[in-house]
Amino acid sequence: MKHLFQKGGNPDNPTLLLLHGTGGTEQDLLPLARIIDDSANVLSVRGNVLENGMPRFFRRLAEGVFDEKDLVERTAELNKFLDEAAEQYEFNRKRIIAVGYSNGANIAASLLFHHEDSLLGASLHHPMVPRRGIVLPDLSNRHVFIAAGLNDPLCSPEESEELNTMLVQAGADVTLHWENRGHQLSGAEVDAARVWYGALYK
Ligand code: MLT
């Protein structure tokens, strides 16, 4: 997968996996990584799917309606890429924390839903429920931060609550952070993610 990697202060430091929103690139979330942990390794990946020229991490049939087969395949592809990247760049595969926005948050949530050991934690900015009707793996010892907008037209507060509940029922420790805004990624929620991360991983 197209990506960039930046080495952190120490090879055993956590690795932030950056996953952009629809139409983004691997450059988009680099400023967030610096705010959240400037000594972490950074692996920033570009989605392999194009929708009218816009990179994404999996196909959708309509806005908010996911192509489930593609979602499952692309999630496995990303998980395998993480294995390969950890070997190539010699970072600790067990210490990956995803930071995803919108479509990138959705595939990060899908990693947690489908691959038990894919992520140590995740900061999900404006995620949706990636899939329903499956049994989630045991997510105890996984920490998840969800930033949601009270007026998000793509992801309703009910859907954010639903995702929270699904993750908690699977054993994850979840912090649900609300912004009185829409789907945009705000400075305040990045700051809250930094505080959440700092208490757990620094
Ligand atoms: C998705 O397709 O993943 C969501 O609708 C968010 C987005 O617009 O990318």
UniProtKB/TrEMBL annotation:
Upper classification of the organism: Bacteria, Bacillati, Bacillota, Bacilli, Bacillales
Record-annotated Dienelactone hydrolase domain positions: 77-178
Transmembrane feature ranges: none
GO MF annotation terms: hydrolase activity
Pfam families xrefs: DLH (PF01738)
InterPro entries the record matches: AB_hydrolase_fold (IPR029058), Dienelactn_hydro (IPR002925)
Keywords: Hydrolase
Recorded superkingdom: Bacteria
Keyword Coiled coil: no
SUPFAM superfamilies listed in its UniProt record: alpha/beta-Hydrolases
Keyword Hydrolase annotated: yes
Protein name (Swiss-Prot/TrEMBL): Alpha/beta hydrolase
